[in-house]
Design goal:
The chain has 330 residues and is α+β, with helices and mostly antiparallel strands. The chain contains 13 helices and 6 strands. α3 crosses α13, α4 packs across α5 and α4 packs across α6. The protein is globular, with a radius of gyration of 21 Å.
């Protein structure tokens, strides 16, 4: 039985954006809804997901915005993994219909205790958008949006590393403003760009000239790489001096050794026998291939080590496209 719907993350936190359409405002951000269900067997979730996906498609046609619907079992709430997605759902949501206290049994996830790997995961996902904009001829508005998303991820990663993460862009902006750390102009630029990106989520603006977009894309790439290196030095305790060496460094992933056999199988399913190389990554989650390769590719580098990570590519663009393909699949 359906218990309730739960809306997240932007509209659920009161941060859904809008655009001007004639003489009125219309919603801008997409809608992600969880339908919280009770007494549903895990075996039945696949069929329920398909039904909800179809319903979301119908709603999209009706309101003109992307709508994603997914089931969430009440029985699974106490065992949810501590990730950014679940943390933001627990601490920032709106109940659309049903019991307003339904999330009361969810696992405890204090935002300021966000696992460090979540910062790396978020930063890598948004850096992939910058790489996409580097190697593909995308519409200016899309690149502008990708640039803003990257700055938001950089700010979140910094706060996670400092144990100051908050749920909500406004709260994160306040937390960034309150940080007392030695980072000079780099931190001031991050604060300005984060504020700009946060405002753009609420009220998007037209993209600037192609020349300025290119300049801002380069700026965002440099910032992502600079803060990525800083973040990884904090997370691993080892400085990052070379992105090619980082790509094949031991011990970057948090997976337990007992998970290695299953991870190897996932690599083989994803890439065939090429998934067995390099050995340093074959026992990690497949997403580590893109995480390891992204900084060097974002820096414009190429080489055999990167080709092995992403499964081929004769030059930088080919390797970048392979990396993006793996990113979408893993």
């Amino acid at each position: 039985p359906l218990v309730n719907g739960r809306q997240f993350p932007d509209h659920g936190r009161g941060e859904g954006g809008s655009v001007v359409a004639g003489d009125r405002l219309e919603p801008y951000n997409d809608y992600d809804l969880f339908v919280v269900v009770e007494g549903v067997r895990r075996l039945d979730l696949a069929a329920m997901r398909a039904d909800l996906r179809a319903l979301g498609g119908k709603l999209e046609e009706s309101i003109g915005l992307e709508v994603e619907l997914a089931p969430l079992r009440v029985e699974d709430l106490p065992r949810l993994p501590f990730t950014m997605m679940w943390c933001e759902l627990i601490h920032g949501h709106t109940v659309v219909d049903g019991d307003p206290s339904i999330m009361g049994t969810a696992a405890s996830m204090p935002p300021d205790e966000m696992p460090l790997f979540e910062g790396l995961h978020y930063l890598s996902n948004r850096s992939a958008l910058l790489l996409w904009a580097m190697v593909e001829d995308l519409p200016p508005g899309r690149v502008w949006k990708f640039i803003h998303k990257a700055w938001l991820a950089v700010g979140a990663a910094l706060l996670i590393a400092e144990g100051r993460f908050e749920v909500g862009y406004g709260r994160r902006m306040d937390a960034l403003a309150a940080l007392d750390m030695e980072a000079g102009e780099r931190l001031e630029l991050l604060r300005r760009r984060y504020q700009e990106a946060s405002a753009a989520r609420l009220r998007p603006t037209d993209p600037p000239s192609p020349a300025e977009i290119e300049q801002r894309l380069c700026e965002a790439r440099y910032a992502a790489l600079s803060w990525w290196g800083w973040f990884e030095a904090r997370r691993t305790g080892l400085p990052v001096t070379d992105w090619m060496r980082y790509a094949v460094r031991d011990g970057l992933a948090p997976e337990a050794a007992t998970a290695a056999p299953m991870m190897v199988l996932r690599h083989v399913r994803l890439m065939g026998l090429a998934g067995l190389k390099p050995l340093v990554v074959a026992a990690e989650h497949p997403r580590m291939r893109t995480i390891r390769a992204l900084p060097a590719l974002l820096d414009g580098q190429e080489g055999p080590a990167l080709a092995a990570l992403v499964g081929g590519g004769a030059d930088h663009r080919a390797m970048a496209l392979r990396c993006l393909e793996l990113w979408r699949r893993s």
